[in-house]
Design a protein that fits this description.
Length: 128
Protein backbone atom coordinates (compact mmCIF):
# COMPACT_ATOMS: atom_id res chain seq x y z
CA UNK A 1 0.00 0.00 0.00
CA UNK A 2 1.08 3.54 -0.76
CA UNK A 3 0.13 6.65 1.20
CA UNK A 4 -2.36 8.70 -0.80
CA UNK A 5 -0.24 11.85 -0.33
CA UNK A 6 2.75 10.29 -2.08
CA UNK A 7 0.81 9.31 -5.21
CA UNK A 8 1.06 11.50 -8.32
CA UNK A 9 -2.05 13.48 -9.27
CA UNK A 10 -4.39 12.10 -11.90
CA UNK A 11 -3.83 8.38 -11.39
CA UNK A 12 -6.97 6.21 -11.32
CA UNK A 13 -8.04 4.93 -7.91
CA UNK A 14 -8.25 1.16 -8.27
CA UNK A 15 -9.23 -1.09 -5.38
CA UNK A 16 -9.79 -4.82 -5.18
CA UNK A 17 -8.27 -8.17 -4.23
CA UNK A 18 -4.68 -8.67 -5.41
CA UNK A 19 -5.64 -11.81 -7.34
CA UNK A 20 -8.11 -9.77 -9.46
CA UNK A 21 -5.90 -6.83 -10.42
CA UNK A 22 -6.33 -7.59 -14.13
CA UNK A 23 -10.14 -7.62 -13.77
CA UNK A 24 -10.13 -4.28 -11.93
CA UNK A 25 -7.91 -2.65 -14.55
CA UNK A 26 -10.04 -4.09 -17.37
CA UNK A 27 -13.27 -2.73 -15.89
CA UNK A 28 -11.64 0.66 -15.32
CA UNK A 29 -10.61 0.80 -18.98
CA UNK A 30 -14.09 -0.23 -20.21
CA UNK A 31 -15.80 2.25 -17.90
CA UNK A 32 -13.46 5.11 -18.87
CA UNK A 33 -14.14 4.44 -22.54
CA UNK A 34 -17.93 4.18 -22.12
CA UNK A 35 -18.33 7.27 -19.94
CA UNK A 36 -15.91 9.36 -22.04
CA UNK A 37 -18.34 9.33 -24.96
CA UNK A 38 -20.89 11.10 -22.73
CA UNK A 39 -18.39 13.67 -21.46
CA UNK A 40 -17.72 12.02 -18.09
CA UNK A 41 -14.42 10.94 -16.59
CA UNK A 42 -13.87 7.93 -14.35
CA UNK A 43 -11.86 8.51 -11.17
CA UNK A 44 -11.67 4.87 -10.15
CA UNK A 45 -13.09 1.39 -9.74
CA UNK A 46 -13.65 -0.71 -6.63
CA UNK A 47 -14.22 -4.44 -6.37
CA UNK A 48 -15.42 -5.46 -2.92
CA UNK A 49 -14.43 -8.67 -1.18
CA UNK A 50 -17.96 -9.92 -1.95
CA UNK A 51 -17.49 -9.31 -5.69
CA UNK A 52 -19.55 -6.14 -6.09
CA UNK A 53 -18.29 -3.52 -8.55
CA UNK A 54 -18.47 0.26 -8.07
CA UNK A 55 -17.30 2.92 -10.52
CA UNK A 56 -16.51 6.39 -9.16
CA UNK A 57 -16.79 9.29 -11.59
CA UNK A 58 -14.54 12.37 -11.47
CA UNK A 59 -17.31 14.45 -9.88
CA UNK A 60 -17.60 11.94 -7.02
CA UNK A 61 -20.71 10.13 -8.27
CA UNK A 62 -20.68 6.49 -7.16
CA UNK A 63 -22.13 4.05 -9.69
CA UNK A 64 -22.86 0.65 -8.13
CA UNK A 65 -22.85 -2.09 -10.77
CA UNK A 66 -23.15 -5.06 -8.40
CA UNK A 67 -21.90 -8.56 -9.16
CA UNK A 68 -24.00 -9.65 -12.13
CA UNK A 69 -24.47 -8.25 -15.64
CA UNK A 70 -21.89 -5.54 -14.97
CA UNK A 71 -21.07 -4.97 -18.64
CA UNK A 72 -24.72 -4.59 -19.67
CA UNK A 73 -25.45 -2.27 -16.73
CA UNK A 74 -22.38 -0.17 -17.44
CA UNK A 75 -23.26 0.21 -21.12
CA UNK A 76 -26.87 1.17 -20.45
CA UNK A 77 -26.13 3.69 -17.73
CA UNK A 78 -23.19 5.36 -19.52
CA UNK A 79 -25.42 5.81 -22.57
CA UNK A 80 -28.27 7.34 -20.53
CA UNK A 81 -26.28 9.47 -18.06
CA UNK A 82 -26.04 12.64 -20.19
CA UNK A 83 -29.83 12.63 -20.65
CA UNK A 84 -30.43 11.93 -16.97
CA UNK A 85 -28.16 14.76 -15.84
CA UNK A 86 -29.74 17.17 -18.34
CA UNK A 87 -33.10 16.79 -16.58
CA UNK A 88 -31.79 17.87 -13.17
CA UNK A 89 -30.26 20.99 -11.66
CA UNK A 90 -28.92 18.95 -8.75
CA UNK A 91 -25.70 16.93 -8.70
CA UNK A 92 -25.95 13.15 -8.96
CA UNK A 93 -24.34 11.55 -5.91
CA UNK A 94 -25.14 7.85 -6.20
CA UNK A 95 -26.55 5.48 -8.82
CA UNK A 96 -27.50 1.91 -7.91
CA UNK A 97 -27.76 -0.18 -11.07
CA UNK A 98 -28.48 -3.53 -9.41
CA UNK A 99 -32.15 -3.54 -10.40
CA UNK A 100 -33.51 -5.69 -13.22
CA UNK A 101 -35.63 -3.01 -14.89
CA UNK A 102 -33.98 0.26 -13.95
CA UNK A 103 -31.83 1.98 -11.37
CA UNK A 104 -32.07 4.11 -8.24
CA UNK A 105 -30.56 7.60 -8.13
CA UNK A 106 -29.66 9.82 -5.20
CA UNK A 107 -29.44 13.52 -5.98
CA UNK A 108 -27.70 16.17 -3.93
CA UNK A 109 -29.02 19.61 -3.22
CA UNK A 110 -27.22 22.44 -5.03
CA UNK A 111 -25.77 25.39 -3.16
CA UNK A 112 -26.97 28.87 -4.00
CA UNK A 113 -24.49 29.09 -6.88
CA UNK A 114 -25.80 25.80 -8.29
CA UNK A 115 -22.33 24.28 -8.55
CA UNK A 116 -21.66 22.40 -5.32
CA UNK A 117 -23.05 19.04 -4.20
CA UNK A 118 -25.73 18.97 -1.55
CA UNK A 119 -25.15 18.49 2.14
CA UNK A 120 -26.41 15.41 3.97
CA UNK A 121 -29.37 15.76 6.29
CA UNK A 122 -29.12 15.03 10.02
CA UNK A 123 -29.43 11.30 9.41
CA UNK A 124 -26.31 11.45 7.23
CA UNK A 125 -28.21 10.84 4.00
CA UNK A 126 -28.44 13.25 1.10
CA UNK A 127 -31.65 15.20 0.79
CA UNK A 128 -33.70 14.17 -2.22
Amino acid sequence: EVARESMPEGLPELEGPDVQVADVVALYQRAAERFRSGGEQVRGVRLSARGSWTVVLADGTEVVLGRDDTQRRLERFARLLPQIKATQQRPLQHADLRYTNGFALVWGEPEADGERPGRPNTAGHPRT
